[in-house]
Amino acid sequence: MRTRFAPSPTGPLHLGHAYSAILAHDMARAAGGAFLLRMEDTDLERSKPEWAALIVEDLTWLGLTWDGPVHRQSDHIESYNARLETLADRGLLYPCACTRGDIRAALAAPQEGVAHAVYPGTCRARPMADRQPGDALRLNLGRALALLDPATLTFTETGPADAGTHRVDPATARTTIGDIVLGRKGEGIVAYFLASAFDDADQGITHVIRGEDLFDFTPIQVILQHLFGLPTPIYHHHRLIRDEAGKRLAKRDDARAIAKYRAEGASPADIRRMVGLL
Ligand code: GLU
């Protein structure tokens, strides 16, 4: 078993992250497997080295150990882009100039309350030769799906909410995923779920353990895995740690930052107790 914790260093580690990291760590260690740490810092505006450093400090304080050096996505942007471009050679990408703000939001890691709107396909007929600086690169999903055998588009989920084998239905994918943005050339940005899918394969991750807020990205990642000939890991989407009002904790919830509990004298065991792991 090889698991990983893959935070986006855009804020302090809070109880929700701690739960995710401890779960992935403990599952790997219990199985005699490996646990890896990856900084998903391709969002160059929101990611900060200070946050990455604090995350490492907090995880170390929690008593977690990882195998090998920390994998920083910002060190691999060239390689992600080169791989993304191979889809252009296969006629599966097109340039898109629809609202820049929408494109930026589509590329970033998910935030609560930001729904993923299915793109109507306005720029679909544009050839790649037409690409302008700042254009997004969109996947022509219809064409991509036509290349894949629908019977193979499945994944195994072992998390508490949706355990079982899930099928990625092409018709549903067309209406719920659509022509997603995979990157933006020139600014070195690739979509978080694409970089993550490449890394899960490159790092030999067998079990992706992450919050259930990311469940809806799994069908997208399964389609991408098939397009790039990558294996599909087993997925385990865990419950989210919520505040008293039932709201999912976000990076901005500094009140529940691990650093704050540390400063107040909490122990790693206290944190485990707070997230229900002791
Ligand atoms: N970097 C993502 C986040 O912090 C998690 C990605 C994943 O676990 O697949 O939301």
TrEMBL record:
One of its GO terms (cellular component) is cytosol. Keywords: Aminoacyl-tRNA synthetase, ATP-binding, Ligase, Metal-binding, Nucleotide-binding, Protein biosynthesis, Zinc. InterPro entries: aa-tRNA-synth_I_CS (IPR001412), Glu/Gln-tRNA-synth (IPR000924), Glu/Gln-tRNA-synth_Ib_cat-dom (IPR020058), GluQ/Sye (IPR049940), Rossmann-like_a/b/a_fold (IPR014729). It comes from the Bacteria. The keyword DNA-binding does not apply. GO terms for biological process: glutamyl-tRNA aminoacylation. GO terms for molecular function: ATP binding; glutamate-tRNA ligase activity. Pfam families: tRNA-synt_1c. Residues 2-106, 181-277 form the Glutamyl/glutaminyl-tRNA synthetase class Ib catalytic domain. SUPFAM superfamilies: Nucleotidylyl transferase. The keyword Metal-binding applies. NCBIfam families: PRK05710.1-4 (NF004315). Belongs to the class-I aminoacyl-tRNA synthetase family. This is Glutamyl-Q tRNA(Asp) synthetase.
